[in-house]
């Protein structure tokens, strides 16, 4: 399952946070952006439950500087 995770971070932290996100297995890319969100990350997990745990536990809880996430599941036909 693929999803784009929009990540808002503390001021001055986008480059550091993007680097930490890229180091997590399952994060395919993490790009800093102008405006909001600060970072767009593409993640892949086995299923919806794994995605939920990934965002809550690996991104929100473990990456310092993350203030908020907004997850958009990719719908593949």
Rg over CA atoms: 11 Å
Helix-strand category: alpha+beta
CATH H-level homologous superfamily name: Lrp/AsnC effector binding domain/regulation of amino acid metabolism (RAM) domain
Mean of residue pLDDT? 96
Alpha-carbon distance between the two ends: 12 Å
- Report helical residue fraction: 25-40%
What is the N-to-C succession of helices and strands? Answer: EHEEHE
Q: What is the third-level CATH name, the topology?
A: Alpha-Beta Plaits
Strand content of the residues, in percent? 35-45%
The CATH architecture comes to 2-Layer Sandwich
Low-confidence stretches: none
Number of β-strand runs: 4
Count the domains.
Answer: 1
Number of helices: 2
Strand order of the largest sheet: 2-3-1-4
CATH top level label: Alpha Beta
Which term fits the overall shape?
globular
Short description:
With 77 residues, the protein is an alpha+beta fold. The chain has two helices and four strands. It has helices spanning 14-22, 48-60; strands spanning 2-9, 27-32, 39-44, 66-73.
Please render the helix and strand layout as text.
Blueprint (H helix, E strand, L loop, with lengths): L1 E8 L4 H9 L4 E6 L6 E6 L3 H13 L5 E8 L4
Antiparallel strand pairs: 1-3, 1-4, 2-3
Provide structural commentary:
The protein is an alpha+beta fold. It has a single domain, classed as Alpha-Beta Plaits (2-Layer Sandwich), CATH 3.30.70.920. Helix content is about 30%, strand content about 35%. A 4-stranded antiparallel sheet has the order 2-3-1-4, covered by helices on one side. A hairpin with a 6-residue loop joins strand 2 (about 25-30) and strand 3. The chain is globular and about 35 Å long. The mean pLDDT is about 95.
């Amino acid at each position: 399952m693929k999803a784009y995770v929009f990540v808002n971070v503390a001021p001055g932290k986008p480059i550091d946070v993007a680097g930490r996100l890229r180091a997590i297995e399952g994060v395919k890319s993490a790009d800093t952006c102008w405006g909001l969100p600060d970072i767009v990350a593409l993640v892949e997990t086995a299923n919806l439950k794994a995605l939920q745990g990934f965002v809550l536990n690996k991104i929100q809880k473990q990456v310092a500087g993350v203030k908020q996430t907004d997850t958009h599941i990719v719908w593949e036909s």
